[in-house]
Design a protein that fits this description.
six-stranded parallel beta sheet, Rossmann fold, 13 helices, 13 strands, 19% strand, 365 residues, 2 domains, 35% helix, alpha/beta
């Protein structure tokens, strides 16, 4: 079968931006690879073995290993430099269909236009609605549409928005035959993403400590699993906090949350990938908004009464978390059945995006 084309994926992961962009791009990349596309991942810098292990099934190029000669104006503009460095890897004016997927808030219309002028099609993933683009496809798992004048591509663009385009790995698929666990005490999973820059994990552990010492609710929680992500710089602090609390297990940089999430009753998380994965499995989750790009999705889900949100991280403390956990555990059957009854996300988003890309590739060859 003839290949539908090549795909380069420009994405980064680090302690500042976390792992969410990379994880969803890996999910899409695996689907595209299965569908016959040739995949190349392009990222800013290497050196983190935990991240590199996640990418072992892809051809990877690192921009900090790239040597390009360009004039002074480009070296002074990071976005233009990044575009030229990317083109030095993927080449200009490809003979076949070539896609470039970009998932990076530092790269927008200027970057995309530079890549597009070199003969590549652009698919841009964006959680915001106020950033300008020059793309063939705009992708977002939030249902709010992109304004038509936000995209400078004179040929128009295809808009893929809504929960059916969420990039969720199939390992998080909901299994209909699983029954609701009503056993007590409840099992808890704490996972605030790859970096947890606002240190919500420590707040959550303080909340668990409060519950373990609560006269009435000390037995409401059983095992607590705590995930420390690949680029979390506070791993030592989390480990020390966890050691002081009974029946808490810490998992450092697991390759996936799927097994832990499937075997828990409640998830404490931020408003990013782990929240979407939890809702795909239809597990109760208690959400704290930890960055601006999460707000649109979280607000949409709150309006649908689809999640339990504590609000913005700056207003959330350990007592808020412990009180919310008490409320969930006390009414667990009702809460859990509400989550199980909602099919908001599934594991087919990447395959839907791939089909659109294949269709566009075929129509323009």
């Amino acid at each position: 079968m003839e290949s539908p084309g090549s795909v380069a994926i420009r994405v980064d992961a680090n302690p500042t931006i976390g792992m969410g962009h990379l994880r969803r791009c890996i999910t899409l990349g695996k689907q595209l690879q299965n569908d016959g596309f040739t995949i190349q991942l392009i990222s800013q810098c290497c050196g983190d073995a935990k991240i590199e292990k996640l990418l072992e099934n892809f051809n990877i190029s690192w921009l900090n290993h790239t040597e390009i000669s360009c004039h002074h104006d480009i070296t002074q503009n990071q976005e233009l430099w990044d575009a030229e460095a990317t083109l030095s890897i993927i080449g200009r004016y490809p003979t076949g269909v070539s896609w470039v997927i970009v998932d990076n808030y530092q790269l927008g219309e200027l970057w995309e236009k530079t890549i597009c002028k070199a003969g590549h099609k652009i698919l841009a993933i964006d959680d915001f609605r106020n950033r300008r683009h020059h793309a063939d496809v705009l992708l977002s798992d939030t249902s709010c549409p992109f304004e038509s004048d936000i995209n400078g591509n004179e040929n128009g663009f295809c808009e893929l928005v809504g929960s059916k385009f969420a990039l969720v790995d199939p390992e998080f698929a909901f299994v209909e035959k699983t029954s609701l666990s009503l056993a007590k005490p409840k099992q808890l999973l704490i996972s605030y993403g790859g970096s947890d820059p606002t240190d919500e994990t420590t707040k959550a552990l303080t909340a668990i400590h409060l519950l373990r010492n609560h006269e009435q609710y000390r037995e409401c929680l059983g095992r607590v699993d705590v995930v420390v992500g690949q680029v979390n710089t506070k791993a030592d602090i989390v480990m020390r906090s966890a050691e002081k609390i009974e029946n808490v297990r810490v998992h450092i940089a697991p390759e996936s949350l799927a097994y832990l999430l499937r075997n828990t009753d409640i998830l404490l998380t931020a408003g990013g990938n782990s929240m979407v994965e939890s809702l795909t499995m239809r597990k109760p989750c208690l959400v704290t908004v930890t960055s601006d790009n999460q707000a649109l999705m979280v607000n949409q889900l709150v309006e649908q009464s689809a999640i339990i949100s504590l609000g913005e991280y700056a207003t959330v403390d350990a007592e808020n978390i412990s009180n919310a956990l008490i409320e969930i555990v006390t009414n667990y059957e009702e809460v859990a059945n509400n989550f199980r009854s909602r099919s908001i996300f599934d594991h087919l988003g990447a395959s839907r995006v791939s089909k659109v890309m294949q269709s566009i590739s075929q129509s323009r060859t």
